[in-house]
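Model it.
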Amino acid sequence: MIAIVDYNMGNLASVKNAFAKLGKDTVVESDPAAFGKYDKLILPGVGAFGDAMEHLRERNMIEAIKEFAASGKPMLGICLGMQLLFESSEEFGEHEGLGLIRGHVKAFDEKKFSEPLKVPHMGWNRMFTKTHPLFEGLDENHYLYFVHTFHVTCDDADDIIGETEYGYRFTSAVAHNNVMGIQPHPEKSHENGLKILENFIKL
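Modeled.
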């Protein structure tokens, strides 16, 4: 069974509906004491990093998520949920993250853009992927739906499994052992997004 973490930061219904399209039941779970009974965990998220960490802290979910990650069972962060996996974020000040993947969350550096582009990065864009079970059956370059102003930077290049071009190339998918994350929204990315979620189910 797959649990979707409910910490009041994101559209959980759209993620649950995406799994339902694949014929997979999920549980929207708000009790951190119950996380360990699930086979897989989804950490979604929309909004600000600092607010999200505060919501997790208030609900006593931080240690429960870390314990789940340490169990070796598959875990997937989506959009802000992916960013929370990292050590810190500079969004509206410095905020400590879950620290499950070494690296940080930074704003797009518009000074490095090769051409004028709007931030946030919003809409369809290609992801250049490495070989990984999450991307089984997908073309190397496939389009997914993005909405974000900040992006992750990995300390260990081996944790990077997907990159996207927007002004410059940034990390858009990560995996460190059983802990994975994707910046785009698979639940909004039609067939390609559903394929990623289907691959996660199979892990």
